[in-house]
Q: What sequence folds into this?
């Protein structure tokens, strides 16, 4: 996927969708969006991004099971959730494994993170789904406050929830806000959400504060 010079100019000229897009398919590459059953979805509908082309890898070395899981009928299933516009512009929504299903609705963790991360006193945030008897999964925001936040955690929590309610649909607003000193990351600095979920459910783990939003 790529954006050409004219696409960048359009983005800087006010067409914001170009500023957040992955781009258009390169030469010799096919891209489609599919649902959980592998059925192709039309423009504007989110689903898993699949790509096909001569330069797409053939498979995992000495791991036929992993290869079979990643490739299907010549297509590579990327594990990314995206949306294709009518003109072929691809926008990535989230990783499939990070989509939260709460009350029958899908919530992209990245969308919630982008909103909460815009609060000036939030240093880092990760949003995950935690098992919940009522909702199936509850949206949980795990927040690292800036050292100079200078306010009670309860006050900051209330501000974060107000911000979320002002920018997000109700079902996307975190049901819980948890403050931690740091987030588990891998060698490239990306949050390891599997580790974070385990920490949140372990007795005596990193949970500092939780609330029903």
A:
């Amino acid at each position: 996927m790529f954006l050409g010079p004219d696409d960048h100019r359009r983005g800087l000229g006010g067409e914001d969708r170009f500023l957040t897009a992955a781009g258009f398919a390169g030469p010799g590459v096919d891209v489609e969006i599919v649902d959980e059953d592998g059925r192709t979805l039309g423009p504007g509908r989110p689903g898993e991004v699949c790509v096909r082309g001569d330069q797409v890898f053939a498979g995992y070395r000495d791991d036929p099971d992993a290869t079979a899981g990643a490739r299907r009928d010549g297509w590579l299933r990327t594990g990314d959730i995206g949306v294709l516009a009518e003109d072929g512009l691809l926008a990535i929504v989230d990783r499939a494994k990070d989509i939260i299903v709460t009350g029958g609705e899908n919530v992209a963790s990245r969308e919630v993170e982008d909103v909460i991360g815009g609060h000036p006193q939030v240093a880092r945030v990760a949003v995950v789904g935690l098992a919940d008897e009522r909702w199936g999964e509850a949206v949980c925001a795990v927040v690292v406050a800036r050292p100079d936040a200078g306010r009670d955690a309860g006050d900051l929590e209330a501000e974060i929830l107000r911000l979320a309610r002002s920018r997000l649909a109700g079902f996307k607003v975190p049901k819980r806000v948890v403050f931690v000193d740091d987030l588990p990351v891998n060698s490239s600095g990306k949050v390891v959400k599997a580790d974070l979920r385990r920490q949140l459910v372990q007795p005596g783990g990193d949970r500092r504060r939780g609330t029903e939003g």
Helices lie at 5-12, 64-70, 109-116, 153-167, 193-201. The chain is about 20% helix and 30% strand.
